[in-house]
């Protein structure tokens, strides 16, 4: 995996991944891009969501949509690494089995999601929960 981050001006940077995709990052003063710590939070949510949806599809659950609501808790200090991340998966579909959602979230957290496993090894408390909405 490769990437490059280039300073644009002020506190604005552009990150380009080896895949060719790019993202604008900003230090928070002008709100012209995503803050780097927001990217970490979104990365964890994306990694885990990819796992959960994939596992539910493999178990033939009729998933109409899925999103994860994220809350990152950081101290009011410098540096301010995440101390805790709360992830609540909201799975919408028809006749979704709760046991399958619970298992998908568990497998993501403990076996598949590299991002959350990495942060857990760095002593970030990660709390997973879910809710199911019938459509």
Automatic annotation (TrEMBL):
InterPro entries assigned to the protein according to its UniProt record, in alphabetical order: KH_dom-like_a/b (IPR015946), OsmC/Ohr_fam (IPR003718), OsmC/Ohrsf (IPR036102)
Pfam families: OsmC
PANTHER family recorded: PROTEIN YHFA (PTHR34352:SF1)
Protein name as it appears in the record: Osmotically inducible protein OsmC
Source organism (scientific name): Microbulbifer agarilyticus
Lineage: Bacteria, Pseudomonadati, Pseudomonadota, Gammaproteobacteria, Cellvibrionales
């Amino acid at each position: 995996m490769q990437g490059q981050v280039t300073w644009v001006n002020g506190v604005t940077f552009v990150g380009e991944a080896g895949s060719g995709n790019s993202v604008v990052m900003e230090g928070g003063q002008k709100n012209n891009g995503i803050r780097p710590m927001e990217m970490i939070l979104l990365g964890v949510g994306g990694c885990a969501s990819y796992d959960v949806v994939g596992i539910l599809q493999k178990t033939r659950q009729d998933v109409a949509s899925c999103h994860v609501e994220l809350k990152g808790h950081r101290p009011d200090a410098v540096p301010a690494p995440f101390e805790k991340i709360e992830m609540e998966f909201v799975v919408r579909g028809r006749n979704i089995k709760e046991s399958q959602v619970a298992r998908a979230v568990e497998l993501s957290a403990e076996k598949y999601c590299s991002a959350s496993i990495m942060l857990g090894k760095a002593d970030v408390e990660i709390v997973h929960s879910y809710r199911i909405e019938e459509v």
